[in-house]
Design the sequence.
């Protein structure tokens, strides 16, 4: 068993009838890292995760999770992994406390159920029937269930879907703490901002293939000769050239980038360095302008993601927002 | 500097034994079963009610011999088995399946084998309570075991009947929508009352219907139990037919059941 690789996926394929879902997916997750699997709805994320969890068998290719075959060695593997599935999976008539107590009896020395209830902020809802919990409460219960066995590997399928902003923040911090404590985490999500902050490495799936694979910095092209910024007020057209020359040097250009006072500086000869940032801030200060946003390098993960997976994503995002609004209601 | 331990991280917990997991799930099954009022009605109140009411009123038109309670006890036990092994199991499992409970447990250390075992033990526990309740009520009404009564035959009938009806229940639960299972299981329960010779003898039904009904699991289970409780007769034929149903229905359920 490898001491370094937690999950190895080599060229897996899966079709339901004639519909190909995965057409050759490969990636590796190292022990102790937080790995994010991204992609539009229908890209094959959940199918991939379900193959790793042993719920489905790939038609072809090889899968190894903690050195084991998820289907053949399921009984050995299941105690070592914590799952957070997308759908509930919990009887409507039972309460969070009952479910946590039931699942805690699957381990000899589980995490304390009451402590977990408090930790995921379900203390007040501990005796509420599952049916009456909000979408976010259901998600938090699912996370607590995944943590009962102090798993070596956590697989989280859209963990913050349906949560309000405060719960999302708390969950994000909890995931970061688990990662810091050494738990290997595989995450699928649409929250690209979270991924940029939390993930060690990322794979982007589109139509059953991996279309990008690497660290968030590699994917976004951090270090590219580009600066994006937003100011507290718009610049006059004549000032754009002056700013480019003063800050970026010869060959640099500044152009309006999007609505409001958002700009992009290109034509730099090297990656942005501290001196450039200081000089930009100084130029603004002399004119009484505040630098309200600054991004060095090519683009945000979200922009890069949209480039990768194409325009059909816009509709998905809208659908997701609708679903989240429903879940929160 | 010491930092508070992160909940959920650290040395992985060891899995409990398969038996401990099965027992935890069995207690959970029973707790949920007790919480479902309509389930208690079908599994306990209706079989007991059938026994009490039809033991008080002779529905045979005076053609049958012996005390009414002696005719009613085997049928009410058969009805109890149908309620526990088919109706209750099918509905609970169908909703577990539609809520994703089976999938979720399948990914836990318990796995599906402990879940199947716990459902089996749950049905047996309910049947034992039903049998004690019904035999107790019948005894209070003056029932005594007949001269040819055979406990092994009764147990064999209960086991084969349980496999046959649980097979039918799981076949429905594993292939149909939960709402369809709810409707169909209750419909089959009502049909069993009539076609199982439970509230009235089969020979009161039209000839062709009676012929078909007499070969179906409810009637065969009733016959085995009637002979086992001392009603007299040869149990070989109904036992063989009931075993055939158990193999067919149990096998179909095992082949066709979908977890999600």
Sequence:
């Amino acid at each position: 068993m490898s001491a370094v690789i937690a999950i190895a996926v080599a060229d897996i394929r899966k079709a339901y009838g004639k519909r190909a879902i995965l057409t050759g997916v490969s990636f590796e997750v190292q022990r102790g890292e937080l790995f994010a699997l991204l992609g539009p709805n229908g890209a094959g994320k959940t199918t991939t995760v379900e193959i790793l969890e042993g719920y489905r068998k790939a038609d072809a290719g090889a899968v190894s999770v903690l050195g084991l075959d998820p289907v053949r060695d399921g009984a050995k593997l299941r105690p070592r992994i914590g799952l957070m599935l997308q759908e509930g999976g919990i009887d409507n008539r039972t309460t969070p406390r009952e479910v946590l107590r039931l699942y805690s009896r699957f381990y000899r020395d589980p995490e304390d159920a009451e402590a977990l209830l408090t930790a995921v902020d379900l203390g007040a809802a501990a005796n509420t029937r599952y049916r009456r919990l909000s979408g976010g409460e259901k998600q938090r219960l699912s996370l607590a269930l995944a943590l009962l066995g102090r798993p070596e590997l956590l697989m989280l399928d859209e963990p913050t879907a349906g949560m309000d902003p405060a719960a999302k923040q708390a969950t994000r911090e909890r995931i970061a703490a688990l990662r810091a404590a050494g738990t290997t985490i595989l995450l699928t999500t649409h929250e690209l901002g979270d991924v940029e902050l939390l993930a060690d490495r990322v794979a982007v799936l589109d139509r059953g293939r991996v279309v990008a694979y690497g660290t968030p910095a590699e994917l976004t092209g951090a270090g590219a000769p580009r600066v994006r910024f937003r100011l507290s007020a718009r610049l006059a057209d004549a000032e754009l050239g002056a700013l480019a020359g003063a800050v970026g040097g010869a060959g640099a250009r500044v152009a309006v980038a999007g609505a409001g006072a958002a700009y992009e500086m290109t034509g730099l000869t090297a990656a942005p360095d501290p001196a450039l940032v200081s000089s930009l801030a100084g130029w603004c200060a002399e004119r009484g302008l505040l630098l309200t946003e600054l991004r060095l390098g090519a683009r945000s993960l979200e922009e890069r993601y949209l480039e990768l997976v194409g325009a059909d994503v816009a509709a998905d995002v809208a659908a997701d927002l609708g679903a989240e609004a429903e879940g929160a209601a | 500097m010491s930092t508070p331990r992160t909940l959920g991280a650290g040395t992985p917990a060891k899995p409990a034994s398969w038996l401990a997991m099965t027992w935890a799930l069995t207690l959970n099954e029973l707790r949920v079963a007790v919480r479902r009022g309509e389930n208690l009605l079908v599994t306990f109140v209706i079989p007991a009610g059938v026994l009490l009411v039809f033991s008080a009123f002779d529905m045979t038109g005076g053609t049958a011999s012996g005390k009414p309670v002696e005719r009613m006890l085997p049928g009410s036990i058969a009805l109890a088995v149908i309620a526990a092994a088919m109706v209750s199991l099918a509905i609970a499992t169908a909703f577990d399946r539609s809520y994703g409970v089976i999938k979720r447990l399948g990914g836990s250390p318990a796995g599906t084998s402990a879940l199947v075992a716990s459902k089996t033990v749950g049905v047996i526990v309910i049947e034992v309570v039903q049998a004690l309740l019904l035999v107790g009520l019948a005894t209070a009404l003056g029932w005594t075991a007949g001269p040819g009564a055979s406990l092994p035959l009764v147990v064999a009938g209960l086991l084969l009947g349980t496999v046959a009806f649980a097979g039918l229940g799981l076949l429905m639960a594993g292939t149909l929508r939960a709402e369809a299972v709810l409707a169909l299981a209750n419909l089959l329960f009502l049909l069993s009352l009539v076609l199982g010779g439970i509230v009235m003898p089969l020979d009161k039904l039209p000839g062709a219907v009676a012929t078909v009904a007499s070969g179906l699991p409810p009637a065969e289970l009733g016959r085995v139990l009637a002979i086992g409780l001392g009603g007299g007769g040869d149990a070989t034929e109904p036992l063989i037919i009931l075993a055939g149903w158990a193999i067919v229905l149990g096998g179909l359920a095992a082949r066709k059941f979908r977890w999600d």
Observations:
- The first helix of chain B runs from residue 18 to 35.
- The CA atoms of residues 150 and 228 of chain B lie 5 Å apart.
- DSSP finds ten helices and no strands in chain B.
- Chain B has one domain: 17-256.
